[in-house]
Amino acid sequence: MSEPWDLIVIGSGASGGWVAKEATARGLKVLMLEAGRKLDPAKDFPAPDHEGGSRVSILTRVMAIVKGQAVQARCMSYTPMTAHLFLNDRQNPYTTAPGARFNWYRARQVGGRLHLWGRNALRISDLDLKAAEADGFGDSWPISYADLDPWYARVESFLGVRGEAAGIPNLPDGQYSGPHNLTKAELKLLAEMAEKWPDRPATTCRIIHHMPDRIPQPLSVALATGRLELRANAVVERIETDAETGLATGVTYIDAGSRARVTVPARQVAVAASTIESVRILLNSRGPRHPKGLGNSSGNLGRYLSDHLMVFRAGTLPGIEGMGAGHDPYDFGQQSGIYIPSFRNVGGDDGRGFLRGYSMLGSVGRLEPGWFFMAIGEVLPRADNRVELDPRRRDAWGIPVAKVTLRHSDNERAMIRDMNASLKEISTTFGLPDDLLGREGLISKLAYKVAGPLVYTPEGALIPGSSIHETGGAGMGNDPKRHVTDRKNRLHDAGNVYVTDSASFPTNPFHNPGLTIMALSARAGSAMAGFNSN
Questions:
Q1: How far apart are CA 315 and CA 369, in angstroms?
Q2: pTM higher than 0.90
Q3: What percent of the chain has pLDDT over 90?
């Protein structure tokens, strides 16, 4: 057997890249396994060859069914320009519980879903990390804002974030390289919001710098050290463990081209494949010390799956300013302008009929049809919402697929009603025409009506999973009898295995999770190299 790698990282996206960066910087020899292919910056990111190339297309979504992307085509980001950045559903199926629709949007390629990310970089405060202490539901995070603060700063200073300090208690300020520029219409709206909604403080979005070379910067830096080997088309099947100690000994993957099964030894493993896929791998990693899956002695591996509620409102406006000359059509961060952190239940229950809160993010005058706002709300983590293995289905490589169950509770339905009311207030209070389909043709309107149940719940929110903000399943906490990972992202049952992506989140606050995923991953990568990470 070959000499063990110091660390194997499973996944090359937001989490895996940061683990590799911090671990290689501290001298570790790292192998990264990515299930998808390497991208060609020239071939995979061409300029749209026609005006509708970057727009939602009914025809494209219909053709997607023929091409094997029936689920992926439901995603808002799926266009003729981006279709190839989503995976094939026939090769990578999943199942859901009866009556529990879930849209799992996935990207298998080096960089993962970062190539489709809106890049809103938000810090989470103790008001939300410790929300359970205020309202009594579930668990608080076993770490505090003070633990995350230096790692937030490390990520922000390295990637660069455009935004501005706002002094909002449940949206901590970060390190910004400059302002996020707003359109004239957004500047006007932000001033009106400050006057008419003093109880709902708003600010600009906080957007990580675009990566025009199409390679995630942390990954580039890690590769430049010469201590990282990246193997693409390596579909991870399981983590191998020692029969006596229960510790990880390596990783087995299937070469996507040859279908050969390869086992690689390692001293440590970081699971960073994205929430559901990470849980799937752990559940499939059974062994003598882990008969129910690696890290599942508590019985809670896969449980407490969460997501974000998402409700949209949009309309047409004349005189769209656009996003500037020379705008890169793959720069999705430029689509957002204004951000309103949650103004509900801040610090406790304010009697609205639901726990926790939601933010609102939008833009005015940037892109067709003219304006949009979306409300993004916390889904309470419940034991019945979970990821399991489906013993009856396997993917193209013979690996058991994930079975996903996520149902909204009365709490989510009450929040959706409040979201709809608040979004309607934006339209009526600030004179934004509420006509989402105002410029769509009759065929498009009929298609939306027919396909509605595949995209929207009866209450008007997007189907669970559609926010692409899924979290949980390997939640961190201090009690090995209840929690899967500890406060340092290590499995309680195997201390040399770290779960560094959002599967480790105990709750899913209203903030976009990307910055916190990166901060936790940088922190864990440092710890794997033997450095103190609090």
A1: 6
A2: yes
A3: 87
